[in-house]
Amino acid sequence: MRAALMYGAGDVRVEQVPDPTIQAPTDAIVRVVRACVCGSDLHPYHQMPASEQGTPMGHEMVGVVEETGSGVSRLRKGNFVIAPFAISDGTCQYCREGLQTSCEHGGFFSTCQAELVRVPHADGTLVSAPVAEDSELLPSLLTLSDVFLTGHHAAVRGQVAPGSTVTVIGDGAVGLSSVLASRRLGAERIILMGRHTARTDLGREWGATDVVAERGDEGIAKVADLTGGAGTHVVLEAVGHRPAYDMALGVARAGGTISRVGVPQYEDAPVGMSTLFGKNITLTGGPAPVRAYIEELLPEVLDGRLEPGRVFDRTVTLDQTPEGYRAMADREALKVMVRP
Amino acid sequence: MRAALMYGAGDVRVEQVPDPTIQAPTDAIVRVVRACVCGSDLHPYHQMPASEQGTPMGHEMVGVVEETGSGVSRLRKGNFVIAPFAISDGTCQYCREGLQTSCEHGGFFSTCQAELVRVPHADGTLVSAPVAEDSELLPSLLTLSDVFLTGHHAAVRGQVAPGSTVTVIGDGAVGLSSVLASRRLGAERIILMGRHTARTDLGREWGATDVVAERGDEGIAKVADLTGGAGTHVVLEAVGHRPAYDMALGVARAGGTISRVGVPQYEDAPVGMSTLFGKNITLTGGPAPVRAYIEELLPEVLDGRLEPGRVFDRTVTLDQTPEGYRAMADREALKVMVRP
């Protein structure tokens, strides 16, 4: 089959590799119908040291089951499935609590920008959906693999509820998804911090009541202006760089919550008396256990109430995947869908 | 009047100072019946640079109203009152939300180890209690000024509920109070990390099901042993030093919550992928808005169901306050009450 491999920063190639095969009775092989490029794929795209060995890429996909191991009972050949970015057995203590990203037998996909994918613990991991593989709903279904439900996780962990005031930091696909998820959960006011008008326009359509283009101290001052000096009860941080964390500290109201879903590109950060502690601010978030949310949100996607797939503004073939990375890295595209 | 002043590390003196007077119509003057020394008072006792000017000390007290300003309506001369360690007007947006430590017109007491205290915003700050000033309940009532309700805040922010598994880090008065508060909220298992047997014995009496004397990596390994390798859903950090934060990271279960009430003696700490983020661990806590909790807990103290005053194991006169500091700093005493 053909698959995308990264050989270093800015160096993505599509090559012939061996087809995956069933390795355990609980495995399934899925033919990829749509995959995509994630904002988090851009971190290695900017930083990965050059190597002679390519690294398979991609952790988001929807597809059709081609083959199942002897221990798979919930799925059969031909099922259309959504693959959460985390593998989960569906039975361990963490899965039962809805924290499938910490599954005792789990792991993360990293080979989805390809024609075929081996899915371990297929019964636990995959969710089937009653759609054809040429459905118009494919983009929105694909967002249930990661991006929209990562925004949803941010909002859930931030305890967004009817009447909440929310600041969303970042106008990438996860930031915009956080806006949509906050609106869905009843937020009354949503301040979107971002400076790419095409993106913030979609944010406004999805429920942002205010847009702040400024960053750093200027951005913090602007949010203070908009909130009578206090900041907002909820801050959803969808970037992952330290300046975004510092901005979150600046716009969080005393007693409020900062919920992070941007993968932190730092380890240490201020948490002491003058930042989190003194103001009783809660810091929460992490990798989204999207598997825990799919069943709840799927009906709203199927009946068209939710259209999170609007974050995709470009589609490429699998062979064009390198161009997809470039377009996202150069901010020409918000989020790129890959059609093998 | 006489008051305790700190002139530098290890140097507390009791001296004659001017009586406080009403300065605003919302002030009251309270005669101190009992004050005490806080674990957080030991930070300056260990570190304060020497100075020719003494710093008044103490932020916990119960007493009797001696005089009220013309704007005070809820209190009158002779009322027995509990003073939360934070001043609060009772009317601003934060006070209405129960976050009186962030009151827009607030501040913190720092003159309670004395005979008289001026209380700003007396109507908002003070809570009266129907007891005589020689009541046997004085020690427990005094803990509603800070220490017990700080432990309660830790447990509330940690969302301790029936069935919770909890680790409490620290066997000081706040740690023990956190044990008592967790038990009261229904925690099923409470692991107390502390190595002073006299203290952990009180912790066991108050609900600790396990005591771990080891610290650092050894302590973390011990808690892992006790919890099937997973750690506990809730960790209450009642120390404030970085090693205690690191230990909290080590014993927190994926998806769990670290609630801090020990005043952090550090600003930066790890919060990234390998610590908080990757495991979806929530970090919460801060200075306890004890004013928000007093009305709820007071009846249980008045009828004897709760005896948080058992943390006091030594009583000194005001003139003996320097000896009280020394005894706490040397860990001879768990918590010292001051009787002016």
How are the elements arranged and paired?
2 copies of one chain form a homodimer.
Chain A: E1 2-8, E2 11-16, E3 28-36, H1 42-47, E4 55-56, E5 61-68, E6 80-83, E7 86-87, H2 93-96, E8 107-108, E9 116-119, H3 122-125, E10 127-128, H4 138-143, H5 147-157, E11 165-169, H6 173-184, E12 189-193, H7 197-205, E13 210-212, H8 216-226, E14 232-237, H9 242-251, E15 252-260, E16 268-270, H10 273-277, E17 282-285, H11 294-302, E18 314-317, H12 321-329, E19 336-339
Parallel strand pairs in A: 11-12, 11-14, 12-13, 14-15, 15-17, 18-19
Antiparallel strand pairs in A: 1-2, 1-4, 3-5, 3-9, 3-19, 5-6, 6-10, 7-8
Helix pairs in contact in A: 5-6, 6-7, 8-9
Radius of gyration of chain A: 20 Å
Mean pLDDT of chain A: 97
What is the CATH architecture descriptor of the largest domain in chain A?
A: Alpha-Beta Complex
Low-confidence stretches of chain A: none
Number of domains of chain A: 2
Q: Give a quick account of the main beta sheet of chain A: strands, pairing sense, barrel closure.
A: 7 strands, mixed
How many strand elements of chain A? 19
Determine the CATH topology of the largest domain in chain A: Quinone Oxidoreductase, Chain A, domain 1
Structural class of chain A: alpha/beta
Oligomeric status of the shown chains? homodimer
| Number of H- or I-type helical stretches of chain A | 12
Give the largest chain-chain interface (CB within 8 Å). Answer: A-B, 36 and 36 residues
Which homologous superfamily in CATH is the superfamily of the largest domain in chain A?
Answer: Medium-chain alcohol dehydrogenases, catalytic domain
Shape, per Cα inertia axes of chain A: globular
Helix content of chain A: 25-40%
User: Per DSSP, what share of the residues of chain A sits in E-state strands of 2 or more residues?
Assistant: 25-35%
Under CATH at level 1, the class of the largest domain in chain A stands as Alpha Beta
